[in-house]
Amino acid sequence: MTGTRTLEAIATMPVVTKQNLGVLLGASPATLDYRVRCMQATKDLLRLRSGLYAPRAAWKAAQSSPEQASQYLEYLSGIMRSPSYVSLEYVLEKAGIACAGPRKVPAQIESDKAFSRALMRRHKIEGTPFFE
Asked: pTM for the whole thing?
């Protein structure tokens, strides 16, 4: 598969890996590197990080509305920072379901010991002896 057939095949994919392209193109590693560089030069592929690309068609489709763009960027950030943690509270809030759960800073107090210790020192809050 080459040229427009490849572009049509990846147009519906939100992200493409180099491995995906290798399967689609049936190319050797050296040829695959060349083809990927060509697709980047023609802006048909946008490089997100090494071996991970966003097809231009998917990028343009996501820009059709601010909400869709936000969802696409959120999806890409989850893929790029894999493995990523998404809390149940966040998922429910995004779905429009009201719930109670800690936001970023309160959760950081619970989960980050260094942050908690610095906060306690800064505000002169006495803690257990091992915090000294």
From this structure: 0.58
